[in-house]
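re: that chain from earlier
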Amino acid sequence: GSRVDTAPDSSLSDCVTSGYCGREIARVSIMEDETVVPPELTFLFAAADKIEKLETSDEAGLARVTSLLETSIQLAEAAAAVNLELDQADPLPPAWLVEAVGWNKLGEVLCDTGSLGKAATCFRTAVTRWPAYPEPQLSLAQLDREAGRFTSALRWFAQVRAHPQPSHSMSVGAIDEASEWCWYAEWVVEPWARCRSVAAYHEAHLLSRLGRHAEAVELLQSFGVRWRIAPDVWYLSHAPRTASDRRCRQAPGLGGPRFFRDAVPPELGTALRRGFAPGAAYWSETGYDSREYFSWWYDLAVPPQTAVDHLIHHLLPLVGLEDVVGAEWWVHSRPQIADFGHQLHFDMEERTLERTGRVLNPALSSVVYLSGNGRTTDGAGATLVLDQRIDAVDFADQGWLVRPAENSFMTFPGDLLHGVIPGAPPPSHRSHKSATSPRRLTLMIGWWTASQCAELGPTSRRSHGPGPACTAPRPSSRITWPSILAVPEELEKSLLEARETTADGVDVNLVSPIWEELPSCDAEPEIEIPRSIDQRFFVKTIRDFRDAVFAEHYPDAL
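^ sequence. v structure.
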């Protein structure tokens, strides 16, 4: 049928009042000449409005959004001209651009629902409609990276970076302040700027993971980076254990990490892996994939209720502290092939920092490894602990690498900088599905003493909703994960009897150097490292670590 029969043209004011108005259409001015909004754009705005409020569990909502996007695409395809030219003076975008944006948004929705193959088809179609479209190209690069198709991912990242800067009279920073919706700014200029920096960072990160460090230098210099994790650290974290041990040296008595192999009783480890398995209730009920950092507080004076509580009591003798009164715990599960590592960071009590500007670290930090074989053959990333604190004026000369080994336990001083180096790439960069690839499962515990808790004060912890150091919820019809983590009576009895047992810990091999200074570059930085993906493996100055902490939690200190 004709475009009019499918969706009658409407004036801009009609579009706004009809409810088919998303975040973008709200920025369109009501023009005196009653500019006609084509139906393909109206349907696209309707979909965009619903996507902002959509949850992946809302099947009816997903179906509605999909229908709106498909309708927009069909209408745009019928109206699209052969000439793929963009004229920023036009008040509304051409139909072929609307079609490309529709395909891209549909791909994003399918990604959220796990339909990655269909999503990739949508992204490729969007690129076919507009070969200079960076957003779907970046999404294709990410899909390839997460599936272990690293060579293809690098090609896509490079292609995104290669797009020339679109001409525009408005600076990127001024786009969000504009009173009128400008399709050219938001669909052409802004995506180019954002995708370019994201692609460059991911490309440098992936090249480093693949050991191609020389190729990453120019990319890092475009960010103004002067220091990076030394290539030898990447090599040692990926090398076979025997080769890695020959390149490291023992460091007894330096106050670094201690490693306890087989510290977790096998039955307790099994219960924890079951409670935190992929698809377990814990992940969906806590909103793990969509929330900011959150952790749980366990008061050691309270009888243990879950497998985690029992684990904390079981490991307490290994901690070596006399006055521990509470433990803060959190858990991470990540596919190893798609491993991006974990940002270098400091463990701390965020609310104290936000309230007073004071950094308060746990007396001891620790990692319980619930997966891994202690070698590199499984691709699990190694924990990197640096001899570097938040007030350091120089980069650390040394650090420690710890490989995950199932049921092992590692402790280190709570004020040290630490993170996770991405795991070794699979042989021949074979394609894998993230959903079926092995996962790196770790449970972190921060140990707090009585004197520290006195400094925290009564307002430092809360008992509602996921957030820092919350009290775990009681089991209910909506919250089932605490009951799933409950320990059978026989296991509970054996754990209570074994509470006084100890395991022998060993010092962790020392690695040096940790940082490498890049060659100086006279050119001004072209782009900024995107904050949302900054792992701080690449930094400009030693202050980057402290400034990042205070910028987020206590900006008055900057």
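The radius of gyration is 26 Å.
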